[in-house]
């Protein structure tokens, strides 16, 4: 049965880094293939009642609030789902001590009754029950914040990782699911690591099979091969994971050059490779399907290698600031021709909101300018931040041309944004973002970016399916 | 009639820069003098029903949610009330062009029918009606975010400034109200400046008189003498404003060293003074009652002058990042012994939330460290950020010992914070901050600081009066 829906209202998107495209009209979305693709767009439609006759169909019409607009769903190119309970908990730590102090204990508790988090447990721990609560919660948070596609790191546990796949699939979020690989004994705690390369590969294959059983097409949920980062994996594991990704045609995600001590550690652990990027390249992990998170401290030579290999970068400004990792020079990465998207990096990042990542990308770019005598050419503005969050992210997750806009043939992965309207007496809706009525639409978008939150996300669709609605 | 109220529950405060004080118990607040002061505190009370008998009184008991706590109200030491509609609207501008492009047009529209903002008006503009809407809205926002005391800049207009005083007074927020002084012709637009020193002084006196008519004690609302910043005032105006503040015993607020081009401009306009700080000192404006906003680029010599004169500094990290002003070295200011509080600096800052200022103070301090080879001694952590927002702010606004804590004799200027509780299935309350139940209270506070917003502010009191409650 053909299922069609018309969406009418204001449509805003960021098709180019310095362009906000603001249109009113209607689009016809066809769900008969179960995928929710935009069949037609008509920017001459001026009323919801005319939309159906313009398209020559009978279909329900979904209307965006006049004070709001449709916007492409956000793409979170780097998020650790199991770490959600730790958002904001990092003290004054930096990457390597943060991992051992906060992160490994929490991650292990989603699959291991012997996790340090259970040392004072009064009743027998149920790690999978914890995983269920955490994963349902983080997906509620990301959907509520307009994230329609996320590239998740899970934990090393097959069961809990498969549960994350089940939950994203059931709730309709587009997701890459990564079982985390870490098996280098001296770099991983005894309570939280794969026992050997063989186990790493076998467990990864089990997760791959599970994702395929849910969605053979890999369009809504797909496994992503996930060596945590170079130091955490045995060299032969890195190599075999690269081979596995190639055989299976899967994407790869890992971390690179987040923190200077980490860069030093990689140099010590891999003395034969010339750089951090070279370590990944040497082990067959630097591919056009690879997402590298952070890239704060890459040399120019490494940038050129990443560019030559067509690997992608996930910029996580919130996390880089919170953990004191450094100021990622996004402008330089873009100028090198590298494809960049945004990541929340929960819980190195303290927020599951990609809108927050847009804000922090703008702020960090200003701070990068401070390192260059206040040079404004490093600035990322609102439109460019939104472009990174949508079109940039689409390229990073391999969905360029299918996500990030409202053109015909694109998937209906969309959020409806509502802004608050202030009345003449100063009363107003209980929404973030106060609109007084005289602001241009460009300025309303700026106000949304700088002040908006999940209260402004009224409805969210993935592949035409309504997956979130505010109460 | 004596009016007493007991507050029972968890009380958290930051009495020292590196100390979170977490107590349960009860306090008795006496409002018979109309001021709402803590008469007694008892940290041995363990149930709400025992509280009254412990104090030997009959009084209603207000109980904080078990998942939450009482926290001292925030003090916003620098906020421009009329600029609230422009939050998030700054593009890629920096201070001086931001003022002329965005700020002067908006501010002028609150009192001047010839404001550029009305050039396309179809009906006759009503500036005071606009002021009423804007001021009611910004006070709703600050109260909802737990700001119990604010030091406001208004506009140059006496009527609109007095209206701001009326509204804060009626709604019960503790406020300093500054009529903005700017009369140097070549530095101010024709449509938005006082005509002469005489007019500046006369209009300021009119606002002083109005504030006194509302509150002769100056405890809830008081005028604060407000030369916008050195470049905007004639030199004799600066001098006369300093004299007026001294005669009237009033506080002073202005801006200092926010942006490098501004610093250069001050040097050009005041060639006989050795520094920006010296300009204020020379004109009698550097006093123990002076609040200097920003102080991003002070020399060591200027810091010592500020310290010697016991003037205070309002640190506005959000604004400094948004407008690309620079990274304020808060640690150096504190090490010099200068008293520092936090400001939102709406709308250079894009948020009316002091909790956001706490977050940004932490982040900016990390970035300052990046300028010093990643030195962690520059770090401001959660407890210190909260201390700046409460105890630090109390010193800056001259209320040390009366605001910022729960000791006997302190004013009941308090916010009740509620955190979200996640259920075992991952469902949870529609509140920011997900508490899973295993977190320590220190970590819950960290989660609140990094993820909280106005939804977590359940109730707000000023001087014992309930001035905000979430629906």
TrEMBL record, chains A, B:
Keyword list, A-Z: Hydrolase, Metal-binding, Zinc
Cofactor(s) in the UniProt record: Zn(2+)
Residue span(s) of domain Amidohydrolase-related: 71-467
PANTHER family named in the record: GUANINE DEAMINASE
Protein name: Amidohydrolase-related domain-containing protein
């Amino acid at each position: 049965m053909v299922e069609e829906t018309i969406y009418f209202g204001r449509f805003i998107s960021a098709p180019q880094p310095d362009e906000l495209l603001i249109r009113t009209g209607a689009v016809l979305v066809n769900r008969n293939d179960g995928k929710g693709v935009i069949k037609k767009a008509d920017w001459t439609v001026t009323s919801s009642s005319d939309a159906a006759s313009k398209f020559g169909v009978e279909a329900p019409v979904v209307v965006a609030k006049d004070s709001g607009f449709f916007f492409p769903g956000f793409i979170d190119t780097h998020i650790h789902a199991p770490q959600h309970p730790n958002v904001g908990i990092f003290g004054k730590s930096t990457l390597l001590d943060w991992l051992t102090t906060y992160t490994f204990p929490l991650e292990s508790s989603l699959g291991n009754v012997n996790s340090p988090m259970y040392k004072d447990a009064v009743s027998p721990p149920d790690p999978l029950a914890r995983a269920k609560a955490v994963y349902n919660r983080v997906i509620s948070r990301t959907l509520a914040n307009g994230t329609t596609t996320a590239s998740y790191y899970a934990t090393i546990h097959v069961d809990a990782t498969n549960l994350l796949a089940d939950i994203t699939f059931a709730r309709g979020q587009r997701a890459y699911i990564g079982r985390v690989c870490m098996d280098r004994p001296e770099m991983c705690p005894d309570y939280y690591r794969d026992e050997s390369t063989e186990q790493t590969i076998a467990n990864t294959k089990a997760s791959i099979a599970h994702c395929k059983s849910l969605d053979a097409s890999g369009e809504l949920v797909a496994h992503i091969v996930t060596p945590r980062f170079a130091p955490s994996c045995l060299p032969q594991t890195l190599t075999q994971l690269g081979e596995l990704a190639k055989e299976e045609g899967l994407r790869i995600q890992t971390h690179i050059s987040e923190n200077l001590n980490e860069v030093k550690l990689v140099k010590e652990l891999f003395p034969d490779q010339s750089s951090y990027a070279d370590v990944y390249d040497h082990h067959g992990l630097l591919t056009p399907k690879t997402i590298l998170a952070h890239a704060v401290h890459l040399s120019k030579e490494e940038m050129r290698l990443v560019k030559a290999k067509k690997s992608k970068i996930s910029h996580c400004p919130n996390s880089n600031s919170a953990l004191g990792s450094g100021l990622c020079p996004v402008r330089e990465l873009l100028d090198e021709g590298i494809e960049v998207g945004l990541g929340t990096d929960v819980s190195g990042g303290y927020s599951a909101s990609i809108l927050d990542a847009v804000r922090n990308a703008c702020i960090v770019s200003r701070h990068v300018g401070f390192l260059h005598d206040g040079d404004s050419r490093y600035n990322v503005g609102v439109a460019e931040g939104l472009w990174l969050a949508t079109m940039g992210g689409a390229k990073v997750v391999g969905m360029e041309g299918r996500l990030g806009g409202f053109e015909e043939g694109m998937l209906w992965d969309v959020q409806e944004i509502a802004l608050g309207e202030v009345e003449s007496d100063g009363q107003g809706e209980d929404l973030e973002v106060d609109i007084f009525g005289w602001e241009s639409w460009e300025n309303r978008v700026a106000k949304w970016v700088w002040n908006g939150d999940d209260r402004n996300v009224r409805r969210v669709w993935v592949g035409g399916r309504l997956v979130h609605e505010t109460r």
